[in-house]
Amino acid sequence: MVKMRILGLIFDPNLNTTVIVLLDPQQERVLPIWIGSMEGNAIALGMEKVATPRPMTHDLMKNILKEFHVQVIKVVVTELKDDTFYAVIHLVVEGKELEIDSRPSDAIALAVRVEAPIFCTEKVLEEAADLGLLKQRSDLDNSEDLKKWLESLNPDDFGKYKM
């Protein structure tokens, strides 16, 4: 598994979607995942630690897990299958580790709230590279380069995160 961090969120007004860009800090590989605009907003709120007047869905999840003494160990983007990314949330409940199937956007939105690490399997990174989704950070010297690269990708052809 490869530990990732969120490089950024980019809103695509043409498709009304958000792209979450994950970075492998060791090898400087950049992985985009298309998600819905609402899911992107949920991640952004969690990253910025914005307190809302009432708990949003992922805040509610965090509160429930805390109340029942459940720890989120990590989230892992596990598969890229049929143009869809899959993820798993790893929990510890009463000393027992559980894996819960999740959309990557929900797993990441929860991870940023509970400060759990985000991972990606090497297999997903290899498959993304085969599709042309993966890029080296050194090839993206500035945000304009990143924007141009993302605009050149077509989520309808590959790697689109289906809602």
Task: Describe the protein's architecture and organization.
There is one protein chain. By secondary structure, the protein is of the alpha+beta class. The chain has one domain: Bifunctional nuclease domain (Roll), CATH 3.10.690.10. Helix content is 32%, strand content 37%. The protein has five helices and eight strands. Strands 6-5-4-7-1-2-3-8 form an eight-stranded mixed sheet. β4 and β5 form a beta hairpin. α2 crosses α3. The C terminus is likely disordered.
Strand numbers in spatial order across the main sheet: 6-5-4-7-1-2-3-8
Helix content class: 25-40%
Please give the largest β-sheet. 8 strands, mixed
Output mean pLDDT: 86
What gap, in angstroms, lies between the N and C termini? 25 Å
Low-pLDDT stretches are 157-163
CATH topology: Bifunctional nuclease domain
The number of distinct β-strands equals 8
Compressed to H and E, one letter per element, the order equals EEEHHEEEHEHEH
CATH class: Alpha Beta
CATH second-level architecture: Roll
Query: How large is the radius of gyration?
Result: 16 Å
